[in-house]
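Posted in: Structural Biology > Protein-Ligand Complexes

Title: Requesting predicted complex, magnesium ion in pocket

I'd be grateful if someone could produce the 3D structure tokens for the following input. Sequence and ligand are given below.
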Amino acid sequence: MEIDKAIRECDDGRLKTKYNNAIYVIRRALALYSVQEVALSFNGGKDSTVLLHLLRAGCFLHEAEENNSGGNAADGGKTFPIRTIYFESQSAFPEINSFTYEAAATYNIQMDIIRLDFKSGLEALLKANPIRAIFLGVRIGDPTAVGQEQFSPSSPGWPPFMRVNPILDWSYRDVWAFLLVSKVQYCSLYDQGYTSIGSIHDTVRNALLCIRNSDNSEEKFKPAYLLADGRLERAGRVKKNSSLVCGKLSSISNGVKMENLNSGSMLTASIITVGDEILFGTVEDKLGSMLCKKLHSIGWAVSRVAVTRNDIDSVAEEVERQKSTDDMVLIFGGIGPLHSDVTVAGVAKAFGVRMAPDEEFEEHLRHLIGEKCSGDKNEMALLPEGITELLHHEQLPVPLIKCHNVIILTATNVVELDRQWDCLIELAKSNGILVLMDPFVSKCFATTLSDVEVAQPLSKLCAQFPDLYIGGYRRSREGPLVITFEGKDLSRIEAASQSLCQKFHAGAFSEIE
Ligand SMILES: Cc1cc2nc3c(=O)[nH]c(=O)nc-3n(C[C@H](O)[C@H](O)[C@H](O)COP(=O)(O)O)c2cc1C
Ligand SMILES: Nc1ncnc2c1ncn2[C@@H]1O[C@H](COP(=O)(O)OP(=O)(O)OP(=O)(O)O)[C@@H](O)[C@H]1O
Ligand SMILES: [Mg+2]
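-- Reply #1 --
Done. Output follows.
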């Protein structure tokens, strides 16, 4: 069988492993279900083309095992025994459509054309046929892969069948390695700069493959397999806007723009430090207080600073609570390859998603630490599936990780934190990743009056100025009492502080830095 031979004879170890695993999944499926009970969902895309050829090889090997006679040698595995379904749509590219029909003719595929939406089409298919499992070319990283395993029952509300995803863990590079090594035909659009193909309404060529003439007069596109690292496979798909880091607001309206937020709106953040060393008292957390200052400077109120243990459940519990209480959660510590680095996994757990290989992140790590972090062994390249957005900045060797309203910072000291914060703010200015508010202003006054004397007038003042934070603290038991006024409006702060001063003798309060 030519596919099996080509892969076995190639010298790409990673491809061989991926191939063997996919064939294993296919053979398990064929052991569980009869050939009449399975179907291939084929749409002429690159992933389903890979799947088609894997199934051709898998069926051949399965038959060979069943017959124990070296397979169906007469036709070299050319007749395709699995029912194949194609959901034909008016909005598919004509090249995709014609490639699908050509493939059916070339490989003797008996193809059922369905002209209904996926769900109704599958309902009709299952009513008329004993189908129990459907092979799909879904890969981790596809929006529809979230939560799926290699064998995943169809979702509630869908007709009952098993979704079988033999190439779930394949990367973009694996797909192209397979198509090129096995020398099979694929849709011509992939040679014209398309890297992932949806409908004609949401797909354009991938701009990263564009080559222009020196005078800018003509543009050409390189083939899809030359997209070096695969992390920008979907750059040719019409992008949904990245959500603002703003949990409470985005649940009200996803489209809240910076300018729509008046200075009266209050955004709150919480800070989570992960580190047993802080709880043991061996290390002091300087980053937490630094972040409080920084958040204040962009007008965010900090509602909580927590230190948790290096433990998935502790992190998950803290993140879960704060992500729904606050507009943004900043978390740092516990990031890396050590056994104690569980922060990212804790964030995944808080959102109820699993950790999945992130090709884009893996690429960054590869550039940073070279081949030491290789292939599927690279645990640092596992990120929360389906909710991760990488925030790129040229000053950052590795992008920041954002999971909805949780931002994971990799800083380990104040210098690194300074740099990451500055990048975050630049990103906020250029693409609204984070809402920048009017900064807080504050005034502090010291007094030698006693707490008892000040207490009542101060409570009255709080009721009078609910838009201000009015607080008091002592630097020592004997020393002066410090009264603080924090808010967004300096004139309100001045009004409140004057009002307080007027209640006591002149000179009772003196402003301090
Ligand atoms: C054979 C097949 C089975 C599917 N099974 C499910 C399913 O169980 N649950 C689900 O939510 N979507 C299912 N889908 C739909 C896909 O997950 C996804 O919504 C669709 O591929 C997105 O394509 P679109 O962007 O063109 O709408 C299935 C699609 C196909 C082709
Ligand atoms: N119209 C369709 N008819 C049949 N199967 C489909 C259809 N659309 C999607 N599928 C199934 O869903 C899988 C995933 O689709 P997806 O668009 O991610 O991959 P692809 O089309 O194979 O490749 P590409 O990512 O380059 O578009 C396909 O491999 C196929 O199994
Ligand atoms: Mg597609």
